[in-house]
Specification:
Elements (H helix, E strand, L loop, with lengths): L1 E4 L3 E8 L2 E9 L6 H10 L31 E4 L10 E8 L2 E8 L4 E9 L4 E10 L5 E11 L6 E8 L2 E9 L3 E7 L12 E4 L10 E6 L5 E7 L5 E7 L6 E3 L4 E12 L2 H15 L4 H4 L5 E3 L1 H4 L5 H14 L3 E4 L29 H9 L3 E6 L3 E3 L3 H5 L18 E3 L5 H17 L4 E4 L9 E2 L2 E2 L1 H18 L4 E4 L17 E3 L6 H11 L8 E5 L13 H9 L2 E4 L8 H21 L3 E4 L7 E7 L5 E8 L10 E2 L9 E6 L19 E5 H6 L2 E2 L7 E9 L1
Parallel strand pairs: 19-20, 19-30, 20-21, 21-24, 24-27, 27-28, 28-29, 29-30
Antiparallel strand pairs: 1-2, 2-3, 4-9, 5-6, 6-7, 7-8, 8-18, 9-16, 9-17, 10-11, 10-13, 12-15, 13-14, 14-18, 15-16, 22-23, 25-26, 31-32, 32-33, 33-38, 34-37, 35-36, 35-38
Helix pairs in contact: 8-9, 10-11, 11-12
Bound molecules: alpha-D-galactopyranose.
Length: 702
C-alpha cells in the first residue's frame, strides 16, 4: 500500500491484480505496518453481488469496465473506431515524501498513463495525469477524468451555479443514484462554473463536519461529476471537457491533463477554505509575497466611455485625497472604441480621446504617488475594427459560417500565430511606451464556435491565453494582471497561476456581493478578489445602501472603489478615508488569516471573520441582510480565537452602522475585554440593526 498523509488527511492506495485502487481518502490515519495493510485490504473488500461479474467491486483509479467496474470510466477514446476498451496494468508505483507516481500500461490499446498524486502540507491533494499514445496509429481521446472515492457518510453535494451579476450561488442536494453532472462549454470557466464541488455529510456546516472537494485548475471547458453506483460506491470526478476531435494523439504524443485540486476537511467548509488558502499562499510567487495589495480605484462605473483628461483628473484628485494607491482606466481608450460595438482589437491609444497619448494622464497620476492600470480585452474583436477588416480570417469559426455575435464581438483565434503575435505585440507596445503596473484583462463572450481551420481548439485557446499572460509578465517584470470576464466569468483555480486578481463580479451591489464573495472565497483567498465600494445608487440593482454597509462589504477582499468619487458627499468621503486607512492598516491580516464563517445566523445576518494565524488579532463583520426576526437579536459568538487569551473586543465605530432599531446601545458598547473561550461560547449582545447595515469588529489580544 502507499499511504500519503499530512496533518489532517490521508489517502491510501492499494495494489492488487496489477492495478491500483484507492482504499481511503479522508481523515488522517496512523502508520500502517504490514499486518495493518493486510487487515485493511480484507476489511474493505466488497462481496461479489448477484447479477454482477465474478469480481469484487473496487475504487479503481482508472475504472476500466474490463475489470468489472460498472460506472463512468476515467479514460475514453479509440483508434478510429477500434481499441475502445481499456485494461491498464500497473508498471510501477513509487512514493517520495507525500507524493506518489504511478505508471500504467495498456498493451492492447497501446497507451501509457502516468498519474501523480501530491498531498501538500496544507492537505490539498494535487493530481496530474498524462496519457501517451504508444501505438502506430492516431488515438482519438474523448476524455480523461480524475476520480476519487467518497466515504459512505458523504451524502450531499454542494456545487455552484450563476449568471452575469450573480456568480457562484450555492446549491446543496442529496447525492442520488446515477451520475450528477456539471459541464461547462463556454470556452472559459464561465459565470455558471461550479469553481469546486464539495461532497459532505448532511450535518456538515461551516465550522464542523466532514467535506471532500474536487476542482479543476483550468479555465476552459470542464466536467464535474459525482457518481453513486448500485454496487454501493460513491465517487467524485472532474476533468477537461474535450470537444470531438479536440485531442487526437499522434504516435508518441501525450495529452497532459489539466491539474485537479482536491481537499478533505473534518473541520467543515472552513477547513476546506483554510486548506486552499494555505496552499495558494505557500506558492513562492503568491501575490502578497511580492507586495501588499494596493487600494484600487477602477474608472468603469465612474466614467464608462466618457474619457477626458479633465474629467479623469478631477477623480484622481479626489482619489489621492482619499488615499487610493492605484487608478485603472477601463474600456474606451483605444482605436474607435467610443461605444461597445466597435474598435475592439485595435490596441492603439485613440487620438480622439487622448490626443497626447496616455503619458500625460499617467504622469499626473504617478506624480500623486498613485500607480496606473489599463483595460484590455485581447481575445476579442469587433467586426467594426481595423483588425477585423484586415484579418477577417483570424476569428474562431466553423469554415463558411460566421458565429453569432456576443456584445458585438467575435473571438480572436489565438491559436493562429499571426493573431497571437498581433495581440502580444500591440499590448506589449502600449506597456513599453507607458508606465503601466497593472492590466485588467476582460473576456466578454462565450466561445460558441471554437473552431480553427475546422478543428475544435478550446484547449489550445486556453493554453494560448495562459502563455500570453506569462509572456507579458516576462517582458514586463512586476506587471499584475486581473482576470475579468463580464465580471466573474473566469474565476478559477487554473487562472490563479497566471493572473493576480479577479474581478469577482460586475454585480457591485453590496447585498448581492455578500453572497457572491462568501462563496467565491470558499477556495479563492480574498487578496485575489476585487471588492469595490460602489456609488450611492448602485448601477446594477439601482438600490441605495448606506456607505457603512458598502465599505464593510468591500473590506474583505482586494479592496477598491468603483465610483466617480467627485459625486460623493462629505460624509461618504470621510467614511471612504477611514475605509482606506483601515484597509491599509489591516490588509496584512485580511490577506493572511484563517476564515471563520459563523453557522449561527444572528437574526437573518451573515457573520464572517479573519483570524490571524497566531490568533493575536481578528476582524469580524456582522452584516444584517434582511430585517431581524427578534427585537432583541441573539447573542453573537466569535469562534476561531485562542480560548485562554484575553482580547479587547471593539466595534470599529467609524465604519459601522450607527442607525439602530433600539433605544440604547448594548451594555458593552463600544468595547469589552473577554477571553477567546467566552467569546466563542457565551458571546455578546449585538444592537438591533436595520436591514442592509453592518458592524465591523476588531479583536486584539490584550
Ligand atoms: C466588462 C467588465 C466591466 C467593464 C466592461 C468594459 O463588462 O466586467 O468591469 O470592464 O466590460 O466594457
Amino acid at each position: 500500500m502507499i499511504h500519503l498523509r499530512q496533518s489532517r488527511s490521508s489517502i491510501i492506495f492499494s495494489e492488487s491484480d496489477e492495478t491500483l485502487s484507492i482504499l481511503h481518502w479522508g481523515k488522517k490515519i496512523g502508520d500502517l505496518n504490514a499486518a495493518a495493510e493486510k487487515a485493511l485490504a480484507v476489511a474493505t473488500q466488497k462481496p461479489h453481488f448477484h447479477g454482477g461479474l465474478d469480481v469484487a467491486p473496487r475504487n479503481l483509479i482508472l475504472r476500466e469496465h474490463s475489470r468489472g467496474f460498472i460506472g463512468h470510466p476515467a479514460l475514453r477514446g479509440h483508434r478510429n473506431g477500434v481499441a475502445a476498451s481499456n485494461h491498464f496494468k500497473l508498471k510501477s508505483a513509487s512514493q517520495k515524501d507525500q507524493s506518489m507516481v504511478a505508471l500504467f500500461h495498456d498493451e492492447i490499446a497501446e497507451l501509457e498513463i502516468t498519474l501523480t498524486y501530491t498531498l501538500t502540507p496544507s492537505d490539498v491533494l494535487l493530481i496530474d495525469a498524462s496519457v501517451k499514445n504508444l501505438g502506430t496509429t492516431d488515438y482519438f481521446l474523448e476524455h480523461f477524468l480524475y476520480w476519487l472515492p467518497l466515504a459512505e457518510q458523504a451524502d450531499e453535494l454542494l456545487d455552484f451555479y450563476g449568471h452575469w451579476t450573480k456568480e457562484r450561488q450555492p446549491q446543496r442536494r442529496e447525492i442520488g443514484y446515477g451520475l450528477t453532472s456539471r459541464e461547462g462549454f463556454e470556452g472559459r470557466s464561465g459565470h455558471d462554473y461550479t469553481i469546486t464541488q464539495v461532497a459532505l455529510n448532511h450535518s456538515t456546516n461551516f465550522r464542523s463536519g466532514e467535506a471532500w472537494s474536487l476542482a479543476m485548475a483550468w479555465s476552459g471547458n470542464n466536467i464535474h461529476h459525482v457518481e453513486r453506483l448500485i454496487d454501493g460506491s460513491k465517487a467524485i470526478g472532474a476533468g477537461e471537457y474535450l470537444l470531438p476531435g479536440e485531442v487526437i494523439l499522434k504516435p508518441g504524443e501525450s495529452y497532459e491533463a489539466p491539474r485537479a485540486i482536491a481537499s478533505f476537511s473534518d473541520q467543515g467548509l472552513d477547513g476546506i477554505t483554510s486548506n486552499h488558502y494555505d496552499w495558494i499562499r505557500s506558492r513562492s510567487n503568491h501575490i502578497t509575497k511580492v507586495r501588499p495589495r494596493p487600494l484600487t480605484l477602477n474608472m468603469w462605473e465612474a466614467v464608462y466611455f466618457n474619457h477626458s483628461f479633465e474629467g479623469i483628473k478631477k477623480i484622481v484628485d479626489k482619489a489621492a485625497e482619499i488615499g487610493v494607491e492605484r487608478v485603472v482606466l477601463d474600456d474606451g481608450w483605444f482605436g474607435s472604441r467610443r461605444t461597445d460595438n466597435k474598435g475592439l482589437g485595435d490596441w492603439v491609444v485613440s487620438k480622439d480621446v487622448w490626443p497626447d497619448g496616455l503619458q500625460p494622464i499617467i504622469k499626473y497620476i504617478n506624480d500623486k504617488g498613485i500607480e496606473f492600470g489599463l483595460w484590455f480585452e485581447g481575445e476579442m474583436v469587433n467586426a467594426d475594427s481595423d483588425l477585423y477588416r484586415a484579418h477577417p480570417d483570424w476569428i474562431l469559426q466553423e469554415p463558411g459560417r460566421i458565429p453569432v455575435e456576443g456584445r458585438w464581438q467575435q473571438v480572436l483565434d489565438l491559436t493562429k500565430e499571426g493573431a497571437y503575435n498581433h495581440v502580444l505585440n500591440q499590448v506589449d507596445a502600449v506597456l513599453s511606451e507607458n508606465n503601466i503596473a497593472y492590466i485588467k484583462w476582460d473576456h466578454n463572450r462565450h466561445l460558441s464556435d471554437p473552431i480553427s481551420d475546422g478543428r475544435a481548439v478550446v484547449r489550445k485557446q486556453t493554453q494560448a491565453i495562459y502563455r500570453l499572460f506569462d509572456e507579458l509578465k516576462r517582458r514586463h517584470p512586476g506587471l499584475e494582471i486581473e482576470s475579468c470576464a463580464s465580471g466573474g466569468g473566469r474565476v478559477d483555480l487554473g487562472m490563479i497561476e497566471h493572473a493576480d486578481r479577479f474581478w469577482t463580479s460586475d454585480q457591485n451591489d453590496a447585498l448581492e456581493r455578500q453572497q457572491i464573495q462568501r462563496w467565491t472565497g470558499l477556495v479563492i483567498p480574498p487578496e485575489f478578489l476585487g471588492t469595490h465600494v460602489g456609488p450611492t445608487v448602485g448601477h446594477q440593482m439601482h438600490r441605495t445602501h448606506n456607505i457603512s454597509f458598502r465599505v464593510i462589504n468591500a473590506l474583505f477582499g482586494h479592496a477598491g472603489i468603483e465610483w466617480n468619487v467627485t459625486e460623493a458627499s462629505d460624509e461618504e468621503i470621510a467614511t471612504l478615508k477611514s475605509y482606506v486607512a483601515f484597509y491599509k492598516k489591516n490588509r496584512d491580516l485580511l490577506h493572511s488569516g484563517d476564515v471563520v464563517r459563523s453557522d449561527v445566523l444572528v437574526g437573518n445576518a451573515q457573520m464572517y471573520g479573519t483570524v490571524a494565524k497566531d490568533k493575536k488579532r481578528a476582524i469580524f463583520s456582522y452584516m444584517q441582510l434582511t430585517s431581524a426576526d427578534n427585537f432583541g437579536p441573539l447573542v453573537a459568538t466569535f469562534e476561531g480565537l485562542d480560548s485562554k487569551t484575553t482580547y479587547t473586543f471593539k466595534v470599529v465605530e467609524e465604519l459601522s452602522s450607527q442607525d439602530f432599531l433600539q433605544k440604547s446601545h448594548p451594555g458593552w458598547w463600544p468595547s469589552v475585554a473577554m477571553t477567546g473561550e467566552q467569546l466563542a461560547n457565551i458571546g455578546l449582545q449585538l444592537p438591533v440593526l436595520k436591514p442592509e447595515s453592518g458592524l465591523l469588529f476588531e479583536i486584539v489580544a490584550s
